[in-house]
Amino acid sequence: MTETDSLTPTQTIDVSHQLPATIDLVGPEPVIDLREPQTELSLDPRDHSYDPHDITDLNLHTIREYMEHLSDTERDKQLRRYLGPDYKIAKESGLIDMFYYNPEEGRDGLMHTLVGEFIHGPNGSVEEVAGAHHRASFRDPNTYVDFSHITNAKQRNRYAELQWQPWKSRSVIKSYPKQVIRMGEDNKPTVELKDSGMFPDEYDPLAVMQAISIARGPGRDKSQDKILDDGTILAIGQAPLLDGERSMSIRMFLMPGTEQVISAFPNDRGVGRVVLSREAIKQYLGVGQ
C-alpha cells in the first residue's frame, strides 16, 4: 500500500547512493514526563509521602494511576509522551485502538499519521518514507517541514500555512524527505518526493484523532470506498472544522475486515480564512467546562 495524492506533483531523481538498507526507526526520544504531579507518588514505605493507611479517594486514585504506568508497554510510554494528559481519554474512548498496530511488521497507524514512519520492503530495505501529517506532533529535531523548495508565488500559495485549516507541506522525517522509492526501467532505485496533507497546527493530537474518527464513521459514505489490489480500503470522509461552517476532507487507508486506520490525512488544503468566535475557541480549549 502506498499513500497517493492526486493533487501532488512528483520529482524523480536517482537516490541509489543516498539511502541505507535499513534505518533506525526509533532513535533517541526526549524523555518528557507529562503525567500529572500526583502520579509521582512513591510506593516506597521509606518515603514519607506514601502513607499505606491513607485510603482517601485521592490516594487510591494516585496508586491506581501509578500501577497503570507500571504496566505500560514501550508503545504506551511513547503515546503518553505524544498525547500527554489526553492519553487516558484516547485509550478509554477507543481512539488509540482505531489505528492499525503491528509491532512485528513495524507498523503503527497512529504514529505514522502524526509523525511519520519508514516502510520496509520484503528484503528489509526502505521502500517508502511516509506519513507525518501533524507538525504540532513532531518531537524529533530531524523531523520538520521543509520550505527550501519554494521559489515562486505559485509555490508559496500552494504551501501556505493556513490557520485552523488543512494545508500542504513537504516534510522531512528523521532527516529523510518524504518519498516513495521505486525501481526505474534501468533497474536503479529512484525516488518520488511527495507532498503531505497536514492537519491544522492548532489541533492537538487528540483533536486529530477525533477528526479522523468522525471522517471514518458518520462523515463517510461507504458506498464510495475503493478496494485496492492488496485489499486495503481507500475511503474519504468529512470532519467539521472548528467554525462549524466548513468541513475537512480526510483520505484514509483502512485495514480490510477491522477497518483500522493505516494512514489518514487531509485530502485537500483549506481555502480562504477560518474565523472563530470567542465561544468556539473557548469550547475547543475546554475553558469553563
Describe this structure in words.
The chain has 289 residues and is an alpha+beta fold. It has one domain (12-25, 72-285). Helices cover 22% and strands 22% of the residues. It is built from seven helices and 15 strands. The chain has helices at 57-70, 74-83, 87-93, 109-115, 153-158, 205-216, 278-285; strands spanning 12-14, 101-102, 107-108, 117-120, 126-130, 144-146, 167-173, 176-177, 179-183, 189-193, 196-198, 226-227, 233-240, 247-254, 261-266. The strands form four sheets. The protein has a five-stranded antiparallel β-sheet. Strands 6, 7, 8 and 11 form a four-stranded antiparallel β-sheet that branches. Strand 7 and strand 8 form a beta hairpin. The longest helix has 14 residues, at 57-70. The chain is globular, with a radius of gyration of 21 Å.
Uncertain residue segments: 4-48
Mean pLDDT: 77
| Proportion of beta-strand residues | 15-25%
- Radius of gyration, whole Å: 21 Å
Q: Report the span from N to C terminus.
A: 42 Å
Layout of secondary structure:
Layout: E1 12-14, H1 57-70, H2 74-83, H3 87-93, E2 101-102, E3 107-108, H4 109-115, E4 117-120, E5 126-130, E6 144-146, H5 153-158, E7 167-173, E8 176-177, E9 179-183, E10 189-193, E11 196-198, H6 205-216, E12 226-227, E13 233-240, E14 247-254, E15 261-266, H7 278-285
Antiparallel strand pairs: 1-10, 2-3, 4-5, 5-9, 6-7, 7-8, 7-11, 9-10, 12-13, 13-14, 14-15
